[in-house]
Amino acid sequence: MLTWQATAATLAQSNNTIIMVSMRRNRPQPHALARCTGALLLTLQSICASASDGFINPAGPVAAALRDHFVFIVLVMMVVIVPLFIALPWALWRYRIGNKSGNTSGNYQPEWEFSWSLELLVWGLPVVIVTILGWKLWEQSYQLDPYRPLPATAAPLEVQVISLDWKWVFIYPDQGIASADELMMVTGRPVRFRLTSGTVMQSFMIPRLGGQIYTMAGMITQLNLLASEPGEFRGLNTQYNGMGFANQKFLARAVSQADFDAWAANVRQSKPPLDQAAWAQLMTVFGTAGPAVLRQHCRRLFCRLRVELQRQSSPPRSGRNEIVSAEPNFALLGKLTAQDISFVQTWENPVMSEFIAASAGGVMVIGAVVVIALLTYYRGWRALWCDWLTSVDHKKVGIMYIVVAFVMLSRAIIEAVLMRYHQSIAVNDPGVLSPDHFGQLFSTHGSIMIFFVAMPFVSGIMNYIMPQQIGARDVSFPLLNAISLWLTAAGAALVMISLVVGQFSTGGWTAYPPYTGIEFSPGEGVDYWIWSISLSSVGSTLTGVNFATTIYKNRAPGMTLFRMPLFCWTTLCTSILMIFAMAPLTIATLMLALDRYAGFHFFTNDLGGNMMNYANLFWLFGHPEVYILILPAFGVFSEVISTYSGKVIYGYKSLVFATMSIAVLSFTVWLHHFFTMGQGANVNAIFGIATMLIGVPTGVKVYDWLLTMVRGRIRLTTAMLFSVSFMVTFVIGGLTGVILANPPVDFAVHNSLFLVAHFHNMVIPGVLFGMIAGYQFWFPKAFGFRLAEYWGKWSFWCWSIGFYLTFMPLYALGLMGAMRRTVEWFRPEYTGWLQVSFIGAMLLLAGFTFLAVQLVVSMRQRDQRRVPAGDPWDGRSLEWSNSAPPPEYNFAVVPTVFAQDVFTRMKQQQQAYASPDHYEDILVPTNSMVAPVIGIAAIVFGFALVWHIWWLVGVSFAGMWGAVIARSFVTETERVIPASEVMAEHEAWLQRVRASAETPRELEDTRSNVGRAQVLA
Amino acid sequence: MKQPLSHPGLNLGSTDEYSHDEAEPVIFGFWVFLMADLVLFALLFATYASMSVQGQAGGPTPADVFDLPSAFIETMLLLASSITFGMASLALKYRADGPHLVFWLALTFLLGAGFIGMELRDFQTMIAQGATPQRSGFLSAFFLLVATHGIHVTAGLVWMLVLLLQLRVQGRTTAVKLRLMRLALFWHMLDIVWVCIFTFVYLFGVAL
Amino acid sequence: MNGDAMSKPHVDSYAQDLRSYCIGGVLALLLTALAFALVAFGILPLFERLVALAVLAVLAVVQIVVHFRYFLHISWRSHRDDLQLVLFTSLILFLMVGGTIWILFNLHERMM
After folding, report:
1. Distance of alpha carbon A24 from alpha carbon A11, whole angstroms
2. How far is A616 from chain C, CA to nearest CA, in Å?
3. How do residues B77-116 score in pLDDT, each as one tens digit?
4. Taking residues A269-293, what's their average pLDDT?
5. Which of A493, A580, A599 lies closest to A540 in space, CA to CA?
6. B3 and chain A: CB distance < 8 Å anywhere?
7. Where are the domains of chain C?
8. pLDDT of residue A328
9. How many angstroms separate the CA atoms of B128 and B132, rounded?
10. What is the structure's pLDDT at C78?
């Protein structure tokens, strides 16, 4: 309780009356707002009671201001969030399909699509909130600029900080002394830190005193802190920097001026000098230095460091410590040796961590062998090659994308569970994974989830659905589409190969240099990352080009832009983002590769390299990437919610406008990923406000979806459950997003588990739930039978509850000062939270397993689940107007579009399933082996680059371009399906549809649903 | 509702209406791709802008290593090749047969090859002076930016060779015509990038 | 879609198309020569440095517009999609390049 009294004392200084009221617990609390605050603080307090180590338990004015700001934002945001949490369950209950009293004729208004007053409220409320928060953000950014001297009576104490490999050196220039891993401060006297790094980028932080700031070689950043009470505070590095990261901590002691002077005098007299030899040892010996105190040998050490240390080479700190040779290697297999095979490594070094790695590699090899064996046994090679791998049909390409996504998801989710398990037992214990293995796990998990799960899943669904929704027969460039798929698959294959041959990067999915530079990561891991990401980024750029062209040029007659379903709008915006946002990633990885392979100096510590530009380039891609992933999911939710509410989408134009604003705004916010790098308050504030602005259109969307449900007839199917769960969960993620958009608050929680929880909170509901909902929704269209709702709902509950159990504890841990990418903890109070999080991760794994069960069960029952008529959910857009599965050419006759939600209109006007006047020959693209050839050559190309097998690099590069050039000489690229064949097939289907019974919505999940929907008058 | 079609580059229009209709999505798609490529160059420029000032690392400055007369000759070669490609486009559109098209393409190829030759010679001179890309961040950024443009031009040259071959083998089919139209866009776009290079790299570097 | 352009059917005339390339070529040559001459003959150092750079930048932008207009045939009468795309690209490039330069120079200043 001592710390809480201290907190109260600090709070009294902070003049925040709201908080003061709630802190005086013995007095009556008359205001509702104060009661609210009290409840919130009690929650915070319960976190603090177990751990008083984060900024929410401040010991200085900076941290106190951060905490107050944090609480203020949460309270203001409640104005938007609470109404939603009340209205959403109300709408679901009131407008559920079984509600007899609610479904009287007046209540079900399927055409209710807009209300000016509601729309003004929906736009106005977020605008007001963002204005208030933005004004506050601006003010706080200047006041809490880490460079700004703190207002205090005493002159500041100057401390120079040098981050080294897993240790901190503090130099006190005025006292002429230095200390390692121990910082002495004077209570009540501000400290002015000037910081730099002797190795890779790190981030300096004392959570209870305030925010963090990056330390970078060759750069000097600044930070001002003040301890207003005596005590010992934990200080740490928050930026992952190799195997010793978890142990890199220091103790900050705040003592009286007299004690400080005595300490300094003692050091000067009795401690050994920090001479050249001592310094060299500090620089090169890894690990912690212990609180030894050293005298400074040179007052200008800190300044000289910028020049000197830049040239000092340091041995590798990740992967195996191998010697890198500067000579180019022209051996037949390049750098590759038997020792690089993971099984050999395990044989030579049989420890748990290696055993786990070998098992993963083993599972992959066995899986591949089993697939090959099964294909051979069932003589499936020919079908696989002819029907799938060489196909350029957008529907098959789409399905193959989703298969890639599911395969990669299974690996990444197992990695996640393994990491959560490890962390849950690694409290004052080394756990099961070696630091290096752990580093590879979080790097592959992140890279795979973004580039090889989310991206292919999104691309796959867009591929399958978008052309059908706009009434097209295929995308504009079908072969290019297949090439994009194969490039993405090649990237995924490289990541999988790294399980068996060599190791993966430990630099995280962002791969920040200089850590990922050749000097600090000489192994092949980063190269695996670079080439797998580069291949997939090229594929995504081409996908964007292809889809944008398709939407602009291939729409059916009458399909104006403003008649397109929302999913097409989001696909268009995503394509535009892909076109413009993938280039920065390509450039960043290319520059990193040139640094590593050719000795360039883009991001190195020495000779003018500047890693800050990497951060800049990476996030120029990275932020739009978030919307590349989330926008298609928004599109899916729009379709799902509208369809399962049996109602036109509410505020169509508003949603379109919101989507477009999000797309443009997403190019203006990238800096919020590195608020802590040291740029000025104005830069931070402007990017912070731009970030908050995105909250406005996003909030509008959520409310428009809610209003889409209102006055509908809601069926809570699996897809709908995922959508509803998304709305609730995503709003919480939005709240923490607005919190993180504030530069000062970001200083406190950047790199912490709070951040990890935030982006999982956006990406799991916002992308994965969306994709799963889309998968449930459109599966019957693609395969001709419905998925089993029973197992779908099991899966849903596991995903939903699992999500909360996994990530809510991470928010708490983040506030308690727990940092991401930490392999071992030293605070026992984390244990409970981490264990809950692990249980949640197990539930998520169960959710994934139930999806697999659902698929298997549904396949076995497919004969009872068939929906040949093609419209099992009373769909509204064109993709439901053809058979399930659709013919190769999608539409026997390209439909003419006369309205939004055109298929619903056709059904209402009895025009659906009418025989067309006449049929025409249809041209479809022929299969081509160019795409698989390019894909396989790309895998070889990447592999050869990783292992420096130069002859193979040349051969595979020539192979890729040779295939392209050879293809350009092929003139027969399309084949004709004669009109008679089209007519026979289509008329037979129409006969069948006309003969089938119309299913009312109540019987959707029964055998009677064969895909013909009952039309309400 | 037929739109008055006018895509980027020289339109075939009434001279070959079938190809003109076919061109619509193809040219648009390529145009979109060029925009993505422009982003790539723009970021290389942005990187160069900061590194040429902040990343000299005590090494040579832009004014030390840039050879302005050589850059001027390169500029003229590339500009001339843009005009000759324009003539090739006109030949493609208006002269259904005859050697004009091949002549102008070949001339464009020679000018482009001359540009690449000059550029390589420049690089060689710089490297001989010790101004290698490994010397400093500024030089890394310079070489990447200019060489990326050079690699694009080289790719354009290879593409031109392939198309000359296709003209010989397949004649002026719609597919070949559309490829020539796309190559024209590519070529003119590279000239635009070069305008930025000679201004923001060479002239700025010497003028500063 | 665009009634204005509909009423003026496009006439394919060799002379007109040739003229477009010739005008473009001459303008581009002039602008290039002017820019190089300003630097090579030392006219620029007479200006204030920033003014000099601005003059060079303006010349480049004008030349880019010339190339777009006369070589790539993008104009206000182009297909709306294409022009929109160029303008949108310009916006994004402005955000990316401007933002990058702003951020990096701000950081550079604060790292001293």
Report:
1. 11
2. 7
3. 999 999 999 999 999 999 877 789 999 999 999 999 999 9
4. 76
5. A580
6. no
7. 1-73, 76-112
8. 57
9. 8
10. 63
DSSP sequence for A705-733: HHHHHTTS-B---HHHHHHHHHHHHHHHH
Q: Do B28 and C81 touch (CB under 8 A)?
A: yes
pTM (2 decimals)?
A: 0.93
Q: What is the pLDDT of residue A2?
A: 37
* pLDDT in the model for residue B120: 97
| Residue A7 confidence (pLDDT) above 60 | no
The span from the CA of A156 to the CA of A843, in Å, is 51
Q: How far is CA A367 from the centre of its chain?
A: 28
The nearest CA of chain B is from the CA of C42 a distance in Å of 9
Q: What residues in C contact B86, CB-CB < 8 Å? A: 21, 24-25, 71
- Judged by CB atoms closer than 8 Å, whether chains meet at A610 and B36 is answered as no
Residue given tokens 């693209």 in the structure block? A925
Mean pLDDT of A233-242: 93
Q: Cβ of A549 and B135 within 8 Å?
A: no
Please report the number of interchain residue pairs, chain A to chain C, with beta-carbon separation below 8 angstroms: 50
- Separation CA A824–CA A834 (nearest Å): 12
B88 close contact with C: CB closer than 8 A:
no
Quick one: which of A412, A401, A510, A527 has its CA closest to A455?
Answer: A401
Contacts of A620 in chain C (CB under 8 A): 96, 99-100
Q: What is the pLDDT of residues A754-775, one digit of tens each?
A: 999 999 999 999 999 999 999 9
C57·B86 Cβ contact <8 A: no
- CATH homologous superfamily of B17-207 equals Cytochrome c oxidase, subunit III, four-helix bundle (1.20.120.80)
| Burial (CB count <10 Å: 0-12, 13-18, 19+), residue A667 | buried
Tell whether B113 is within 8 A of chain C (Cβ): no
For residues B104 and B81, give the distance between their C-alpha atoms in angstroms, rounded to a whole number.
9
Is residue A215 classed as helix, strand or coil in its secondary structure? strand
Task: Tell me if A610 and B59 make a contact (CB, 8 A cut-off).
Answer: no
The Cα–Cα gap between A187 and A294 comes to 22
ipTM associated with this complex? 0.96
For residues A467 and A481, is the Cβ–Cβ distance under 8 A?
no
Say if A599 is an interface residue toward chain B (CB within 8 Å).
Answer: yes
Give the residue ranges of chain B where pLDDT is below 50.
Answer: 1-3
Q: How many CB atoms lie within 10 A of CB A96?
A: 16
φ, ψ for residue A966, nearest 5 deg: -60, -40
**Residue of higher predicted confidence among B33 and A351:** B33
> Residue A318's closest CA among A492, A589, A512, A168?
A512
- Give DSSP secondary structure letters for A373-423: HHHHHTT-HHHIIIIIIT---HHHHHHHHHHHHHHHHHHHHHHHHHHHHHH
Torsion of CA A899, A903, A904, A910, to 10 degrees: 100
**Domain residue limits, chain B:** 17-207
CA dihedral A923, A924, A929, A932 (to 10 degrees): 150
Nearest CA to A4 out of A28, A29, A22, A30 is that of A22
B207 CB within 8 Å of a chain A CB: no
Q: Write out pLDDT tens, residues A650-690.
A: 999 999 999 999 999 999 999 999 999 999 999 999 999 99
pLDDT (average), residues C36-42 = 87
pLDDT single digits (tens) A147-169: 999 988 889 999 999 998 888 99
- Alpha-carbon span A439 to A433, nearest angstrom: 9
A411: pLDDT strictly greater than 80: yes
**B chain contacts of residue A601, beta-carbon cutoff 8 Å:** 55, 57, 134-137, 140
| Spatial separation of the C-alpha atoms in residues A647 and A654, rounded to whole Å | 16
Average pLDDT over residues A277-286: 77
The answer, for A49 touching chain B at a CB cutoff of 8 Å, is no
